[in-house]
Amino acid sequence: MTISANPLLLGQGLPPFDHIQIDQVESSIGQLLQELEVQLNQLEANIIPTWAGLVEPLTAIEEKFSWSWGIVGHLMGVKNSSQLRQAYENIQPEVIRFSSRIGQSKPIYEGFKAIRISNDWANLDPAQQRIIESTLKEAQLSGVGLEGENLERFNQNRLRLAELSTKFSNNVIDATKVFKLKLTEPEDITGLPESLLALSAQTARAEGEENATAELGPWLITLDFPSYGPFMKYSSNRILREKVYKALISKASFGQLDNNGIIEEILKIRREQSKILGFSSYAEVSLSRKMASDVQEVEQLLEDLRKVCYPAAIAELDGLKFFAGQGELKHWDIAYWAERQREAKFAFNLEELRPYFPLPQVLDGLFGLAKRIFAVTIEAADGQAPLWHRDVRYFQVKDEAGEPIAYFYLDPYSRPAEKRGGAWMNDCIGRARLSNGQVRLPVAYLICNQTPPIEDQPSLMTFDEVNTLFHEFGHGLQHMLTLVDYPGAAGINNIEWDAVELPSQFMENWCYDRQTLFGMAKHYQTGEVLPEHYYDKLLAARNYMSATGMLRQLHFSLLDLELHHRYQSEGKETVQTVRERIAKSTMVLQPLEEDSFLCSFGHIFAGGYAAGYYSYKWAEVLSADAFAAFEEVGLENDTAIRSIGKRFRETVLSLGGSLPPMEVFKAFRGREPKTEPLLRHSGLLKN
Predict the structure, then answer these.
(1) Cystine design at 193: which of 351, 460, 574, 586 (Cβ 3.0–4.6 Å)?
(2) What's the rounded Cα separation, in Å, for the pair 556 and 598?
(3) pLDDT at residue 687 above 60?
(4) Of 63, 5, 10, 351, which Cα lies nearest the Cα of 195?
């Protein structure tokens, strides 16, 4: 089989999703690794310690590998199947070995060190220097300095960690699919909005209930968020709410899909890896790659925020109890009564907004905002790229001259049978300047899990789903609008993880901007613009229960740090008792005994946020302060907004990982960030 005949071995261009066969994955990646191993051996045998002699050929090897393996990883997230899992798991050890082979290559490491002390060092631009410095650090953290038993053990652990993380993620996907609550009686659906009834009937039909209708049922409730979230907010059946809530918090915590043992083993191995590298904890390893200098600095920021929002969260719960008028509130009551209180306080129901947020209209508003503040035009390019699912869209981004500068896929809808939950952006193709002088344009994947179209209706989005789309688009903008021509620092590459959420969280703020909101909020049937009173109510309700929401994020962040910094599996505490201890100061309502939330905490056990979940809050300080720059000139002042948007694009969105994030932020803001805007935006600090 030649590379030209195998779609997974093309190594460049848009992935040919329409030709990829799962039974090719294992052999294709195996063949690729063999070919790249030969190229790597040749590179090591002929080290030329210059940018052109070492960095560029190594980058070519890495990019060829990431193109092919990136497609497989992408399909694992959006087109998961037992056949793909098996192929992935079979070849993954070879992939990890190859990755370790590069990271632990002493000839390459010494070559990079030689560049740093050469006469040519001063001739390299800051982006090149930063790529080399980062590569040296990553090599050290990959074990390049290890020998003998330590090296062997370290590499065994890397293989096992990859296997465990994949298993963790698969268990969460499967556990989400397993739970189904079938409702058949009118009293079962009391309070449920029409949108959820229609979705639940559609889900039931997909599961074989051919005659299911929104009016007559049966209705199927799942743990997929477009189903779970509205059910917990609107179901007046307390017994059913309890059942669904307990199913969620115990997800992937028992039976064949139990992640408890996987968590323990992951934490134990990560701690061992840290010791082998000479660190006292995995948190120290994680923070060595981030903006924050040490655990103490992170915990201080989190504690500063906790002290402000904890008493406010207590007051919020007390107010909710008084409003509910039924004494003690259980965990499965909070979302329900919070929604009733929100309706009473602000005189509107979030479901009333859905008809004003059809996905096509929201995209028009989002793209209009991008043009207004960043001077880019986004147009549909459907039909120009192979797709992995019929619902996926493809778009192109153009500059002011009308020239294409980037592209992106949008996979918007929930598909719990094959797609993992949550939302994310990933790079399909990164920007680079090719040997012929041309620029390779970046391509992004934007993945959401919002409410799908139901019958003849378009996807009618909740306001939270609108926020999520704006968030992921912010990540996409940083990938697509980069002007860095080196793959190692283009887009989000080489950006410290606790700064990478800056543009995404920044974009969420625009959902409340008057011009943006009225540019997209139009009734899907009548075209009527969102009535003015809804905008006023949205603004008034923006910070409803905000202290509770922030405290929840702080709980996750502090728990993540504790597990990766102080917890020892052979100690007196268990993972669960650690959580209970952290919860005493970060949760107003203490977790139930059966609460196994950690068993589905994919961010830290199957993603990139281990000992880094705090990054959301760290970056939110940056993003809130960045948005404040626009507020200071007045969001209605288009001339000033365009000027500041240009500066934001030329710094935060363009510079990628070519400079340290604090330098990038100061280049935009003219100073270091302040925490006041975040507290103000959260309603915890008055103007």
Answers:
(1) 351
(2) 9
(3) no
(4) 351
Gap between the Cα atoms of 416 and 50, Å rounded = 48
Which of 344, 345, 402 lies closest to 378, judged by CA?
A: 402
Residue 171 CA to residue 222 CA, distance in Å, equals 16
pLDDT in tens, 368-398: 999 999 999 999 999 999 999 999 999 999 9
Residues 6+ apart with CB under 8 A from 369: 510, 513, 516, 519
Q: Which residues of 253-266 are buried (b: 16+ CB within 10 A; e: fewer)?
A: beeebebbebbeeb
pLDDT at 3: 41
CB 409 within 8 A of CB 443: yes
Confidence of residue 256 (pLDDT cuts 50, 70, 90): very high
Nearest of 514, 397, 524, 394 to residue 453 by alpha carbon: 524
Taking the alpha carbons at both ends of the chain, their separation in whole angstroms is 66
Rounded Cα distance between 395 and 378, Å, is: 7
Q: Cα separation of 667 and 591, whole Å?
A: 43
Is 264 labeled as catalytic in the residue annotation?
Answer: no
Residue type, 540: A
Buried b (16+ CB within 10 A) or exposed e, 277-303: bebebbbbbbbeebbbeebeebbebbe
SS3 551: helix
Cβ proximity of 267 and 168 under 8 Å: no
d(CA 21, CA 81): 12
Q: One of 63, 299, 351, 472 is an active-site residue; which one?
A: 472
Distance CA 654, CA 123 (A): 22
Nearest to 535 by CA among 566, 504, 513, 508: 513
Q: Are 227 and 539 in contact (CB under 8 A)?
A: no
CA gap 408, 420 in Å, rounded: 20
Write down the residue that tokens 């053990």 correspond to.
Answer: 153
Q: What is the pLDDT of residues 638-655, one digit of tens each?
A: 999 999 999 999 999 999
Nearest to 546 by CA among 330, 312, 230: 312
* Spatial distance between the Cα atoms of 549 and 554, rounded to a whole number of angstroms: 9
Helix (H, G, I), strand (E, B) or coil at 425: strand
CA 450/CA 452 separation, integer angstroms: 6
Task: Extract the tokens encoding 56.
Answer: 């560029």
Residue with the two structure tokens 């391509």: 443
Q: Measuring CA to CA, which residue among 485, 482, 484, 478 is closest to residue 502?
A: 478
Are the CB atoms for 656 and 667 separated by under 8 Å?
Answer: no
Q: What's at 73, amino acid-wise?
A: G
Residue type for 531, please? P
Q: Kindly give the pairing relationship between strand 404-413 and strand 443-450.
A: parallel
Question: How far apart (Å, rounded) are the C-alpha atoms in residues 260 and 271?
Answer: 17
Q: Measured between alpha carbons, how far is 624 from 638 in angstroms, rounded to an integer?
A: 20
Using N-to-C axis directions, what is the helix angle for 56-78 and 25-45, rounded to 10°? Answer: 160
With beta carbons less than 8 A apart as the criterion, state whether 659 and 668 touch: no
Tally Cβ neighbours within 10 Å of residue 408.
25
Structure tokens belonging to residue 398:
């153009």
Q: Torsions phi, psi of 53, nearest 5?
A: -85, -25
CB contact burial 358-367 (16+ within 10 A = b; e otherwise): bbebbbebbb
Q: In which element (H, E) is residue 203 found?
A: helix 194-206
> What percent of the residues of the chain are helix, what percent strand, and what percent coil, each to the nearest 5?
60, 10, 30
CB of 172 closer than 8 Å to CB of 600: yes
Cβ pair 569, 264 in contact under 8 A = yes
Antiparallel, parallel or unpaired: β 424-429 and 432-433: unpaired
Predicted TM-score (pTM) of the model is 0.96
* Tokens (6 digits) for 462: 């909740």
Burial class for 377, CB neighbours closer than 10 Å (0-12, 13-18, 19+)? middle
**pLDDT class of 326 with cuts at 50, 70, 90:** confident
